[in-house]
Amino acid sequence: MSQNTRFHPYGSSSPSLNNLLGQTEASGTLRGLNNQNKRGAGGDSSPDVFNDTMGGGSSGLFRREPARTETSPINPILEKILQELGNLSNKVSQFETMSSRIDQLADATSILSNKVYEVNDTVSSVSSRQQVVTLSNKVDQLTATLADLSAGSDSPATSPGLGANRVPTATPAAPWAVSIALKERVYQLAYALVGEAGLEAYTAIQVDGNVLQRSLFNTIKQRVQAIGGQWVVQHLPPTIDGFQDVPAGKVYNKLVKDAGKHAREKMHLLVLTNIRNPRDPSPITATVPNIKKLVHRIADQCNTNPESLDADALWSQLSWGHRLRVAYLRREAMRVVRGGGNIWARVDQQLRKMRERGPLYTTAFYKLVYNQDCALFEGNVRFTDIPAQVNFALPSDGEVEVEMNTMEPQPAAADE
């Protein structure tokens, strides 16, 4: 290699400057500028850097030349090119570094995948579902413990000094909510009680400021409370100093009222069997069931016939009071069909009247209604066959008093 030739850092395989710049107008302009000092008419005595190749010949790009008094305009261009080539080299190095990191990430992913397979194998080896649940519960407990420790740690600015007594902070209690078990029990009782003869009211809770202990609402609550034991503690609203929590009590009372409302609506539809369907105004051509079949249908629909007894067997187990109450409710339902009004407002009003008149009046009234029901509906009568002018009015006070006289006890016969 000639001493006057500088070694090119990219070797003989680097493209010539002509190839780098291309046959453009700019390269022609630069060549013209480079050939401005011509000697004689025959051409240029200075080296042509655009015709020589990089690293080849005695007139190479980096050949040592005598110092010139003026700066060649080509040097900034070459420096720019070299700078860009250096930047490109740096980019290549960065890509190599990035590639190395990608390889490391791939290795870490492979390790994590192996760990997942190990966990899957461990879970697969568990013999029963209960063991999996137990393992899951332990993980949940550990997570909760770590969360408590993290939440309980104080910042340095607010943490107490050594030896200071920590005062435990009370966790706010969650609002009381109705459990599924309580809701099911309340609705079950409501359907079972809606036909009982001892109820004093179906919608009213108190009269003239006096609480009706045997109203449907209060009777449901009493039956729930009578369950007793841990069940009551677990499902009923909490008590504070003997008094029920007010917000929780309101939620519970609404549950009982809703259950009573659904039970009343159910009973109303049942006593209207083959009389009228509020959801279908078309006439009903089927016969109205007699009282025995009606109470059997009510028991089946309200889930109060757990042994699935037939009509005769169930009838023999029912009290007279229950039979009388169902007959009376059907009578009020027919009055509403023919005369309008609200059935339960009528029922509550009549029950109050009978309480005021006493047990003898009540018994005579029920007996008249029951006998009339049995005489009218023997199982072969359609409601459409009953004349429209029949309004199914309740027995008058005079009729009840006549019946009361027939029911008065007779003096006992003298002993012989």
Straight-line distance between termini: 164 Å
Question: Into how many domains do the coordinates divide?
Answer: 3
Put simply, the count of helices is 14
Strand content: under 5%
- The counted number of beta strands is 4
Would you tell me the structural class of the helices and strands?
Answer: mainly alpha
Read across the widest sheet, the strand sequence of neighbours is: 1-2
Q: What is the typical, i.e. mean, pLDDT?
A: 76
Global geometry: elongated
Biased composition (Polar residues): 22-38
Region (Disordered): 1-70
Biased composition (Low complexity): 12-21
Briefly say what this structure is.
The chain is mostly helical.
Question: Which keywords apply here?
Answer:
416 residues, mainly alpha, two-stranded antiparallel sheet, elongated, disordered N terminus
Structure description:
This protein is mainly α. The chain has three domains: 56 residues, no CATH class; 36 residues; 228 residues, no CATH class. The strands form two sheets. Strands 1-2 form a two-stranded antiparallel ribbon. A hairpin with a 2-residue loop joins β3 and β4. α9 crosses α10. It is elongated. The N terminus and C terminus are likely disordered.
List the helices and strands and how they pair.
Blueprint: H1 17-21, H2 25-34, H3 74-124, H4 129-152, H5 180-193, E1 206-207, E2 210-211, H6 216-225, H7 229-235, E3 239-240, E4 243-244, H8 246-271, H9 291-301, H10 311-317, H11 320-339, H12 343-357, H13 359-376, H14 397-407
